[in-house]
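User: Can you predict the 3D structure for this chain?
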Amino acid sequence: MRYEDFRFLLFDRQPDGVLLVKLNRPEAMNATNDRMHWELTQVWGVIDADPGVKVAVVTGAGDRAFSAGGDLSMVEEMSNSQEATLRVMKEASAIVYNMLACDKPIVSAINGVAVGAGLAVALLADVSVMAEEARLTDGHTRLGVSAGDHAAIIWPLLCGMAKAKYYLMTADFIDGREAERIGLVTFCAPRAEVLPRSLAIAARLARGSQTAIRATKKSLNNWMRQAGPVFDNSLAMEMLCFLGSDVQEGLAALRGKREPEFPSARLPQG
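Assistant: Here is the predicted structure, written as structure tokens:
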């Protein structure tokens, strides 16, 4: 692919070989539709192959969200179609493994809410800068599916197993200050400073020894690669949950902006 082939990602070349990438569905809080989700599997290879790029900075278009997760229409399709579920499973895996395979540093500027597939991109970046008042959540259990996407491969490494278990099982929201405190993101900053600080970090990385920086990233990413079987299992479990009745209730609750009443949470009668 070429940069001009992407429909929902915008690209802006900065000085020093820094490429700014924007998730671009601001009218939908940059939620991932089918096309954007697929594009997030492809972009890292394009960046890695571009000799004019040394560092990528990824952020959300507009001022409301980094990405609000999967578009509900995509979620509904998955809950009714094995073909769609298998397609999304393959793409979710590719997002993670293609980010890990990208030799060039990736910086995320988390300018607003981050959920689901968008959160995967935000947290799998090598350096993350989050707005203090922005909020993130894995969100899967609110929908009635198990934590998949990226969670099992990266959360325990970033914030430890105790915090990972709590936040992934409850799907509670975390603001930027708390995310930095527990080690889930690298830095938090006032919203207006998030993108400038991210670009400054990227420029610093772009001025450094590219061979040394890329080799360091590759070595550290082996911690995530060791967790590959854990991640693969978590992704399969998530997709199995899309075949159950809880996801139908979770989807209805999200659309109705109410608390879900999951069938699996009901006590047996008698």
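The chain has a mean pLDDT of 96. Residues 82-101 form the longest helix (20 residues).
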